[in-house]
Design goal:
CATH topology: Rossmann fold
Strand content: 5-15%
Low-confidence stretches: none
Radius of gyration: 15 Å
Distance between the termini: 18 Å
Number of domains: 1
Mean pLDDT: 93
Number of strands: 5
Length: 143
């Protein structure tokens, strides 16, 4: 199973330079390979709220993108719950200060690692570098 963080999911519902690339990558994967977390749902909601505040989206556009995202989750992704041990592992990752990890990214990594995920898919270069420094199964081959 592959875990997708928010940076690898957002291009599926928002027009970005990487949108076609991510879509092609996901379409090549076998069924039952995709996972993400409730934390990604929170981050997507935050991203849409930020787009409204910045006046890049109106409320109807944001509602449509949110509905598209929830539909995508329901049909294609296993949605992983966040547990207390995920927060503890994220905290430990953050104490590895040299990685430059941010809290949300550390939580994504911890959720994936605690579920023995085969690989962690991200477009976030800082998270990719930090995950590799922690010897985690990072995937940068979204192409």
């Amino acid at each position: 199973m592959r875990y997708f963080d928010t940076s690898a999911l957002a291009p599926l519902i928002l027009p970005e330079a990487s949108s076609a690339l991510v879509e092609r990558y996901i379409n090549r994967l076998p069924g039952g390979e995709l996972a993400t977390s409730h934390w990604a749902r929170v981050e997507i909601a935050s991203l849409l709220a930020r787009k409204i505040r910045a006046r890049e989206f109106d409320r109807d556009q944001a509602r449509g993108a949110a509905a598209d995202f929830e539909s995508l989750f329901a049909r294609s992704f296993e949605l992983l719950d966040t547990r207390s041990e995920d927060f503890e592992l994220a905290r430990r990752y953050l104490l590895e200060w040299s990685t430059g990890l941010r809290a949300g990214d550390a939580l994504h990594l911890a959720i994936a690692v605690n579920r023995n995920i085969k690989s962690i898919c991200t477009l976030d270069k800082t998270m990719l570098k930090a995950g590799r420094a922690l010897s985690l199964p990072m995937e940068s081959e979204i192409r």
